[in-house]
Amino acid sequence: METESEPYVRLASLRQLHQVMADMNTARSLADTLQTVSDGVVNALGYELACVNLVRPDGDLVVAAFSGNPAAEALITGRVGSRASWERRLGMGETWGDLIFISHTEGWVLDDDDVPQWHTEGPAPRFADEWHPADRLFAPMYAPTAQQGAASGELIGVLSVDRPRNGRRPGAWGREALQMYAFQAAIALSNARLRANMQRALVRLERDQQALRASEESFRQAFEYAPSGMAIAEMGGDQHGRILRSNDALCRLLGRPASSMRRYSFSDLVHPEDIGTLLRTSAEGGRAELRLIRRDGTYVWVSLRNSVVADAADGPRFLLTHVEDIEERKRRELQLAHRASHDSLTGLPNSAELRSRLASRLCARPQAAHPGAVDAMDAAYGHPAFDANGHGFDYRPDTPGEVPDSFDGYDHHVHTAAPEGEHDDGTKGLAVLFCDLDGFKSINDRFGHNAGDAVLIEVARRLSRQVRDGDTVARLGGDEFVILADGLGRADAQDLAVRLRNEIIQPIRAEGRAVRVGASFGIGWAHCGMTADEVLKSADERMYVEKRSRPKQHRRAG
To answer: The domain that contains 321 carries what CATH number?
Structure first.
């Protein structure tokens, strides 16, 4: 401005100032706005140099724009001054409204601080209001508040100006013009920063949306084209577990179209025996191995893993279920387990499995306790220690120390009973029939081991055919077999032995010829207080007694 008198402000100057204001508010970016603010001080307000110091997020101020001197612009643009140094400057000097003027007479104390600055050269002032090259004039810019014009908002930057073109310190009009300009510049910078933040947010949003779309597409492809079964099911509510979506691999595995899969939940498809396994699997993750039913009614072993996925932030959650076909592995596991517990030649339970099944029916406590023990238990608890069948009661007192020291507490156990005497007394028990083939060695010696193996396989088949479901036929080893038959009386066991012997002595085809073997049976009885080996030994001994009691010619085979 060429005059300090408001009535004589040139219209061209006002138009120029108006254009600068318009340019500040229409700049395309924050950087453009900063440069426009700096240029406007030089072009419209009549100063030779102008600098915009912008507050950074860390609070320090950076030289963001410079106008009036290319050399100074190249030297200090981008340099940073600490917030403490700037607060020191803004707290000293004269206050011209919202402006801060620091005269050269006191500004020398600032020469060595870290604020970037540029000093122009020139002669010393010749009169009182002449501008000195070391004078400093700052216009703080504050974020706009509801109290228009008040410097009470957050500091967003400082305008630093130097060397008015008329060579004089600005008067009242010049000061007010710079103050109003700083206020408008603060508005423009705040708006530009807001637009920049919005643009960055939009860019981030678009980038996130692109990433989300890419992620959704990747998930869709991974879900649809996964080599193993995948399903998405509802989580929570009345429809918990209902299948919403299934991939092609799961549909092929179960032989069901995708449209029909949406009618089911996994609880509808699981084998009845595996419902408990499914329920024990955590709804929010976990793994279970169970059987699922195919459309043709057959079952397939699968490994089922659940994980929880959210549709959106705080949105509904779903179960992502991975279903892997483990039928082949389960088949191998069952084969290995079967081989470990069954004879490889005949397929019957082997010796270890036989002893396991027998031992599971026995306990270490005898069926009947010593009479004195029974009387003591009766006296200690006020009720009989054993019932009429010799079955023990459960002794677990609520108060420790109530059981006499001479007795242990036993869980309730249904004892395995054995018939007494040589005659059938009506007692039903677990009969152990020990079978030894007569004449088997001569078949091996005369016709070879292949013939012997064929005989053993056929004997195993005949024994299995003659017993009831639930009875056990096992190969103990060599030509020895054992039958466990529960719920038999003495006469029942003897009849069973006769039937089995009559079945075994029938001719057997082996290596193209008919051969015969005999069979000797010993009947033992299992009861609690015995070990499995003791029961088998008892039956074995009775078998040898029976074998020796028969005429030798009746034991021939061939």
So the answer is: 3.30.450.20
Q: What number of H helices and E strands is found in the chain?
A: 17, 18
d(CA 185, CA 480): 107
Domain span including residue 388: 368-413
What backbone phi and psi angles, to 5 degrees, belong to 324? -115, 130
Residue pair 360/528 in contact (Cβ under 8 Å)? The answer is no
Task: Please give the angle made by the CA atoms of 33, 36 and 42, to the nearest 5 degrees.
Answer: 150
SS (H, E, C) 536-549: HHHHHHHHHHHHHH
DSSP secondary-structure letter at 152? T
**Residue 311 and residue 399: Cα distance in Å, rounded?**
56
Span 95-118, pLDDT tens digits: 999 999 998 888 787 878 899 887
Do 382 and 524 lie in one domain? The reply is no
Asked if 307 and 287 touch (Cβ cutoff 8 Å), the reply is: no
One domain for residues 76 and 192: yes
Mean pLDDT, the chain, as a whole number? 82
User: Does one domain contain both 458 and 541?
Assistant: yes
In degrees and rounded to multiples of 5, residue 515 shows phi and psi of -130, 165
424: confidence class by pLDDT, cuts 50, 70, 90:
low
Report which residue type is found at 505.
Answer: I
* pLDDT of 160 higher than 90: yes
Asked, for residue 37, whether it belongs to a domain, the answer is yes
The answer to whether the beta carbons of residues 130 and 168 sit under 8 Å apart is: yes
Domain assignment present for residue 344? The answer is no
Please give the tally of structural domains in the chain.
4
Instruction: Specify the CATH number for the domain of residue 531.
Output: 3.30.70.270
Task: Please give the pLDDT value at position 385.
Answer: 46
Residues 524 and 544 in one domain: yes
CA angle 214, 216, 217 (to 5 degrees): 65
- Euclidean distance between CA atoms 475 and 461, whole angstroms: 11
Q: Is the separation of the CB atoms in 501 and 521 below 8 Å?
A: yes
Q: What pLDDT, in 10s, does the model give residues 193-209?
A: 888 888 889 889 888 88
**Distance, CA of 64 to CA of 30 (rounded, Å):** 10
For residue 480, list its beta bridge partners.
Answer: 436, 477
- What is the rounded CA–CA span in Å between residue 492 and residue 471? 14
pLDDT tens figures, 496-510: 999 999 999 999 998
Residue 135 shares a structural domain with residue 77: yes
Residue 83 is assigned to a structural domain of this protein: yes
Listed in sequence order, the residues at least 6 apart from 12 whose beta carbon sits closer than 8 Å to its beta carbon are none
CATH number at residue 161: 3.30.450.40
- Determine which of 250-254, 320-324, 409-413 has the lowest per-residue pLDDT on average: 409-413
Report the C-alpha gap between 132 and 231 in whole angstroms.
Answer: 81
**389 and 492 belong to one structural domain:** no
Q: Are residues 139 and 53 in the same domain?
A: yes
Q: Are residues 39 and 177 in the same domain?
A: yes
| Inside any domain, residue 550 | yes
User: Side-chain half-sphere of 299: how many Cα atoms within 13 Å?
Assistant: 15
Would residue 68 be called left, alpha or beta, if left means φ above 0 and alpha means ψ between -120 and 50 degrees?
left
| DSSP designation for 97 | T
How far is Cα 118 from Cα 137, in angstroms, rounded to an integer? 13
